[in-house]
From TrEMBL, chain A:
<feature type="region of interest" description="Disordered">
    <location>
        <begin position="272"/>
        <end position="300"/>
    </location>
</feature>
<keyword id="KW-1133">Transmembrane helix</keyword>
<feature type="compositionally biased region" description="Low complexity">
    <location>
        <begin position="51"/>
        <end position="60"/>
    </location>
</feature>
<keyword id="KW-0472">Membrane</keyword>
<keyword id="KW-0732">Signal</keyword>
<keyword id="KW-0256">Endoplasmic reticulum</keyword>
<feature type="signal peptide">
    <location>
        <begin position="1"/>
        <end position="23"/>
    </location>
</feature>
<feature type="region of interest" description="Disordered">
    <location>
        <begin position="37"/>
        <end position="69"/>
    </location>
</feature>
<dbReference type="GO" id="GO:0005789">
    <property type="term" value="C:endoplasmic reticulum membrane"/>
</dbReference>
From TrEMBL, chain B:
<dbReference type="InterPro" id="IPR026895">
    <property type="entry name" value="EMC1"/>
</dbReference>
<dbReference type="Pfam" id="PF07774">
    <property type="entry name" value="EMC1_C"/>
</dbReference>
<keyword id="KW-1133">Transmembrane helix</keyword>
<dbReference type="Pfam" id="PF25293">
    <property type="entry name" value="Beta-prop_EMC1_N"/>
</dbReference>
<protein>
    <recommendedName>
        <fullName>ER membrane protein complex subunit 1</fullName>
    </recommendedName>
</protein>
<comment type="subunit">
    <text>Component of the ER membrane protein complex (EMC).</text>
</comment>
<keyword id="KW-0812">Transmembrane</keyword>
<dbReference type="InterPro" id="IPR058545">
    <property type="entry name" value="Beta-prop_EMC1_1st"/>
</dbReference>
<feature type="domain" description="EMC1 first beta-propeller">
    <location>
        <begin position="22"/>
        <end position="408"/>
    </location>
</feature>
Length: 300, 981
């Protein structure tokens, strides 16, 4: 079941990795949307055309197909603050809440609609840019009963956001219906020192991503007879016996030198016999020929 | 140089030996081990009719020990677990040491001479209560002595011979707070209060435990509850206003009481009166202001002040030296001296003993005193006293002298830092050298003998001694390799010790006067110790200094004290009593022009204070104002928050050094499924040598190296208790790696069916953690290595040539993290008490994990065993790289215990410090014992080993030269012959 869930989550994550901007309108036909009830949505949040559907439908669906998961749609708001100002609404996330047959609930298919800045907010944001201050966002920690225990806060230096327009990137870490944390920031680099740069457009380009916990890799379990493990241990248990070289190098080197010396001596000797006095300073004023030299030798 | 290179080469050739162990004769050469017992709670002397005079003690570190009364050495010692607190200690039958522990539920008997456990009884009970151990004193040989134990709301009578529970009486239903048990031959009196004014006495049959009678007395006022029994059927207690003394007499089972105003006994009774818990026959001691009144309780219940003592430090219990003579000791302060007097209970005018003592001021006040008598050579009574000092040290005083002392404060080390030693001064006196010339020569002759294997066994012993005693090791100067350092440790008592790494001797110790027990500071405790000022290489004449932080009590709101100490001499340079509290201390990575490190102290009211309080420090902080981030973990709440500085505090007066901060981010863990059990971050002073790792296929992986990274382990709330309380289905462990500047979760992973306790160590780009796998019923260790993908495309050589790489640009935490994590788990045999990793000066040497096992030993494991890239059948290239074939469990090699045969009892922590020599790391492990050693994870590739035979090298060279000479002569001769031919 968990495998299925993670598979499903991964596919959903992949599909929703594509960013959804404010201007972007999905042309996907979402037929099954009618089945979803709106749970936990805040009353003042924008009304969805699908709110009319009641949750009873969902329950009946669940009854009909007991093994499959049932979905409902929920919304939660993004709030933002400029520096240390109070938080105000900044956009809406909507997602599907999948209720699995074993009772667990997961969020999938996250969508985001960002409210554009008002003029006041634009001014505030420009001030943040000038002061290299923080732009803060927050999300409820529980999407069913916002704000849950506490808000999830994240902040970024305002100068990181302006790119072409205003670019932001959310990675929302969820655990069931709880949001643990949000990685918020620019989608790419934010080189330090941060330069003051006003955005060309005041529209947001938002990238959102939902992340669930991954499974830790299982500990490999080997049968006793696997030689790999034992081989390692056998190798290790061996008492440390330093190698021959490590032990006796100080004897070997001089020995080698002596041997080499002896060899060269031995090799030199016949040569010396051949050209013995070659190294001796030549007689001044006389260009001694090789033949003459040997002649001298023979004479001596 | 050539030799070094050659040696390195050789070592690479012989790298297949990964074990670093030592030979038998190397034990104690570079390691030392010290045994302690902790602050003594109870002491019982055993001196009569024994060859070895000893004192039996139990301590706050839950140690039961037998000490040699002559020298203070440990005969035997048992460290009970951390939860097994010793409540009582006594000797039974003259041969067993009886200890009551674990809140009155475990009674053990230890054999007196050797400390073997004779029997153990586990006592059942239903509710928490005071635990009382009562071992009868006047033994009649023919009777099986009953040991009476009150614990967990039950009274047990236990046979002293085999620990069998003879009878038990449950008082849980009586709602009585039992405070005393009096045993007479036939009847046992159990006394206590119900509520605060209803005094109850139960009479029990000593043989069977039957209830005989229950008397009670309702006092017309409330009492303070501190009931003291006076041997002989009487009790004294103060009323709740502490203005009246109530004496209760329970003679023959009838209870009657008398009361007396304290103001009738002493004129100035304005202070708070306290009854001292010393048991004296017919007497009790009442402390009021600085006076101690000794008050006699007459048979009619009248109170008579018999003696008044000023400036009293401590009282001992009464000691009976003969049938009707009872004595006790009291200690008084006068100027710098301590007066110890032993008085007879019935005779106030004369002192049996009056001695003046000079006790080192650094030991603080005397907290407890135990006395013992002996017969002098002139047949008169002599007394010795065992004193427990404020710094937890233990002194034995006899004939006005300190016979021995034990620095048992070192059993409760709370924090450790290190300091370099001073640089050696030029010009060593010639006389010293000449004096030692003969010794030196002798030593070298011995060593030469040893290497030539012609040394006799006596010589060998001498060589070993010489090596151990080599003065080099414990010199008070810096050495070339950086092995000699000062370990500066802070104990729970607030005392700071500097230990020499060479042999572990105490160089200096100090107890700051601000961290002494006083009116303002009731229970001073040491918290942390930091390096305050580390002079740079060019300012060698300056002494480094350290910062000690202590608090007056266990709660966070207690006032805090800072103390600045000179690291070389231990002198206190300065001390501050802070107006604010201390919740956290953050050493900042900035220093001012005098090399003082900037510290930020966070209080509980969300203010941050900058230290040192200098304008220069403010300037530096202003410059880096926006780059200071920190985090806080609210473990109970399940929230982690990030903070940054905001602005100056707004008080009535502007405080330049006080700042308010704001929360930047928060991570909220769902309380129904996760509970924070461990957080670990990287060491701030760790050095990373290579940022990239070259894979077998010549691919490069960049390590994600960030100082601002935090490892968090969360367990399921149901499984956060002990192992065995949760099923595998309801246990899981969630692992997080979090960037602490932005609050981004970089990696998140769940281990199903696993639970804590989690011990972890974070180093470079990896974290290793230890936990329990419930499904496999085994301990496991996992590794996560984090690699940076954003720099992964910096592999192209052309990019480097053209300078198009992004390796030199500063890295900001606000980059979107592109990390990949590799992970692997392995089974591990041991439970773990602490994990640490070796650290070296440049970070080049490979790392070893140091694991403090449940057996109080330290095991070194090569990090290569915890490599996520281990595969079942590594290719040839992988093998060359050093990848070990995959196995399911980590091997435990008996030679890689760096503690070899020793145990660090009650192991609590391991500290590693880099030496100057790159290959070597210094390891200090502390618990009840202390242990220090050096470890070279990749062997000492950069220096010749200790056992390197210089003599043989010299001999070879001489032989070589001789051979050269001989051959040269020979060749000359031959040449001449040739020429003559």
């Amino acid at each position: 079941m968990t495998l299925l869930r993670s598979l499903l989550a991964v596919t959903l994550l992949l599909t929703f990795f594509i960013s959804l901007s404010q201007a972007f309108q999905s042309d996907e036909l979402l037929l099954d949307d009618e089945e979803f009830g709106l749970e936990g949505g805040r009353p003042q949040s924008r009304p969805s055309p699908n709110t009319a559907t009641t949750t009873t439908t969902t329950t009946s669906t669940r009854k009909r197909i007991p093994d499959s998961a049932s979905d409902s749609k929920i919304q939660f708001t993004l709030e933002h603050a400029f520096g240390d100002s109070d938080f105000s609404d900044a956009g809406n996330f909507s997602a599907r809440l999948k209720t699995w047959s074993h009772g667990a609930q997961t969020l999938t298919k996250l969508r985001f609609s960002r409210d554009s800045f008002t003029d006041v907010e634009k001014n505030k944001f420009q001030e943040l840019l000038k002061g290299d201050d923080f732009y803060k966002i927050r999300l409820p920690s529980n999407v069913l009963s916002p704000p849950g225990r506490e808000y999830i806060v994240s902040s970024v230096k305002a100068r990181c956001l302006p790119g072409d327009g205003l670019e932001e990137h959310f990675v929302i870490h969820t655990e069931g219906v709880n949001i643990l944390g949000v990685n918020y920031g620019s989608p790419g680099a934010c080189p330090y020192p941060r330069q003051l740069k006003l955005p060309a457009k005041w529209s947001f380009k938002s990238h959102t991503l939902l992340k669930n916990s991954e499974q830790a890799p299982r500990t490999p379990i080997f049968a006793e007879e696997v030689l790999g493990g034992e081989g390692v241990e056998g190798e290790i248990v061996m008492p440390i016996e330093r190698s021959f070289w490590a032990k006796y190098w100080m004897y070997m080197i001089p020995l080698g030198l002596i041997v080499m010396n002896a060899v060269t001596q031995a090799m030199n000797m016949p040569e010396e016999q051949a050209g013995g006095q070659a190294g001796a300073p030549p007689q001044p004023g006389s260009a001694v020929q090789r033949g003459a030299n040997s002649g001298v030798r023979r004479r001596s | 140089m050539a030799i070094r290179v050659f040696l390195t080469l050789l070592l690479f050739l012989s790298l297949s030996n990964i074990v670093s162990s030592i030979y038998e004769d190397q034990v104690g050469l570079m390691d030392w081990h010290q045994q302690y017992i902790g602050k003594v709670k109870h002491a019982v002397f055993h001196t009569q009719k024994t060859g070895r005079k000893r004192v039996l003690v139990s301590t706050e570190e839950n140690v039961v020990a037998s000490l040699d009364l002559r020298h203070g050495e440990i005969f035997w010692r048992h460290v009970l677990g951390t939860n097994d607190v010793v409540d009582g200690l006594d000797i039974a039958l003259g041969k067993y040491v009886i200890t009551l522990s674990s809140g009155g539920s475990i009674l053990r008997a230890w054999n007196l001479p050797d400390g073997q456990m004779v029997w153990e009884s586990s006592l059942q009970g239903s509710k928490e209560s005071k635990s009382i151990l009562n071992v009868p004193k006047n033994l009649k040989a023919d009777k099986d002595d009953l040991i009476l134990v009150f614990g967990k709301g039950c009274l047990h009578a236990i046979s002293g011979i085999d620990g069998e529970v003879l009878w038990r009486k449950d008082f849980a239903g009586e709602s009585i707070e039992v405070t005393d048990i009096i045993q007479s031959t036939e009847v046992i009196y159990v006394a206590g209060f119900v509520g605060s004014s209803n005094f109850n006495v139960y009479l029990l049959n000593a043989e069977t435990g039957e209830f005989l009678k229950n008397n009670h007395l309702v006092l017309p006022f409330r009492t303070s509850g501190e009931l003291l029994s006076i041997p002989g059927d009487k009790f004294v207690v103060l009323d709740s206003a502490r203005s009246k003394i109530v004496t209760i007499n329970i003679k023959n089972g009838d209870i009657n009481y008398n009361q007396k105003q304290i103001s009738d006994l002493i004129e100035d009774s304005s202070g708070q009166a306290v009854i001292l818990p010393s048991r004296l026959p017919g007497l009790f001691a009442l402390k009021i202001n600085s006076w101690v009144l000794l008050i006699k309780v007459t048979n009619e219940g009248e109170l008579v002040v018999v003696h008044k003592i000023d400036n009293t430090a401590a009282f001992s219990n009464a000691l009976s030296i003969s049938e009707d003579q009872h004595v006790f000791a009291c200690v008084q302060y006068e100027d710098n001296k301590v007066h110890l007097s032993v008085k007879d209970v019935n005779d106030w005018n004369s002192d049996l003993l009056k001695e003046n003592l000079v006790i080192d001021h650094q030991r603080g006040n005397i907290e407890k005193i135990f006395i013992n008598n002996y017969v002098r050579t002139d047949r008169s009574h002599g007394f010795r006293a065992l004193m427990v000092m404020e710094d937890h040290s233990l002194l034995l005083v006899q004939q006005g002298e300190i016979v021995w002392s034990r620095e048992d404060g070192l059993a409760s080390v709370v924090d450790v830092t290190t300091s370099e030693l001073p640089v050696e001064k030029e010009g060593v006196s010639v006389a010293k050298v000449e004096q030692n010339l003969f010794e030196w020569l002798k030593g070298h002759v011995l060593k030469l003998k040893g290497t030539l294997m012609i040394a006799s066994p006596e010589d060998k012993v001498a060589i070993q001694k010489l090596r151990l005693r080599s003065s080099e090791k414990s010199k008070m100067t810096r050495d070339h390799n950086g092995f000699r350092k000062l370990l500066i440790v802070l104990t729970r008592a607030g005392k700071v010790f500097a230990l020499h790494t060479g042999d572990g001797h105490v160089v200096w110790s100090i107890m700051s006067h601000t961290l002494r027990k006083s009116e303002e500071c009731e229970h001073p405790v040491g918290l942390n110790i930091y390096q305050w000022q580390v002079p740079h290489h060019h300012a060698l004449d300056e002494n480094p200094s350290i910062l000690v932080i202590g608090r007056c009590g266990p709660s966070l709101t207690a006032p805090t004290v800072l103390s600045f100490l000179d690291a070389y001499t231990g002198k206190e340079l300065n001390s501050l009593s802070l107006a604010h509290t201390v919740a956290r201390v953050i050493p900042l990575p900035y220093t001012d022009s005098t090399e003082q490190r900037l510290h930020l102290i966070i209080d509980i009211n969300k203010h941050a204070y900058l230290y040192p309080k200098t304008p220069e420090a403010i300037e530096i902080l202003k410059r880096e104002f926006s780059n200071i981030y920190w985090y806080s973990v609210e473990a109970d709440n399940g929230v982690i928050r990030g903070h940054a500085l905001k602005s100056n505090c707004i008080h009535e007066v502007v405080d330049e050094y006080c700042f308010v901060f704001r929360d930047l981010w928060s991570i909220v863990f769902p309380s129904e499924s996760e509970k924070i059990i461990a957080t670990v971050s990287r060491k701030s002073n760790e050095v990373v040598h290579t940022q990239a790792k070259v894979m077998t296929d010549h691919d490069v992986m960049y390590k994600y190296i960030s100082k601002n990274i935090l490892f968090v382990a969360n367990a399921a709330p149901k499984a956060s208790g002990e192992i065995g309380t949760a099923t595998p289905e309801e246990a899981w462990l969630v692992i997080y790696i979090i960037d602490t500047v932005t609050g981004r979760i970089l990696h998140r992973m769940i281990h199903h069916g696993c639970q804590g306790p989690v011990h972890a160590v974070f180093s470079e780009n990896w974290v290793v953690y230890h936990y329990f796998n419930l499904r496999a019923h085994r301990n496991e260790m996992s590794v996560i290595e984090v690699y940076d993908q954003s720099r992964a495309d910096n592999k192209d050589i052309w990019k480097f040539v053209l300078g198009k790489h992004n390796l030199t640009s500063p890295i900001s935490s606000y980059y979107r993290p592109e990390v990949s994590a590799k992970s692997q788990s392995y089974f591990f045999t041991h439970s773990v008490k602490a994990i640490e990793v070796t650290s070296t000066a440049k970070g080049i040497t490979s790392k070893h994990l140091l694991i403090g096992t449940i057996g109080d030993q330290v095991l070194a494991i090569d990090k290569r065993f915890l490599d996520p890239r281990r595969t079942l059948n590594p290719s040839q290239a992988e093998k060359e790289e050093g990848i070990i074939p995959l196995s399911d469990s980590l091997p435990i090699i008996s030679q890689s215990y760096i503690t070899h045969s020793l145990k660090i009892e009650g192991l609590r922590g391991i500290v590693t410090v880099p030496a100057k020599l790159e290959s070597t790391s210094l390891v200090f492990a502390y618990g009840v014992d202390l242990f220090f050693t050096q470890i070279a994870p990749s062997k000492t590739y950069d220096s010749l080993t200790e056992d390197f035979s210089y003599a043989l090298l010299l001999l070879t060279i001489v032989a070589l030269v001789a051979a050269l000479f001989v051959t040269w002569v020979l060749s000359e001769r031959k040449d001449l012959q040739e020429k003559w031919r």
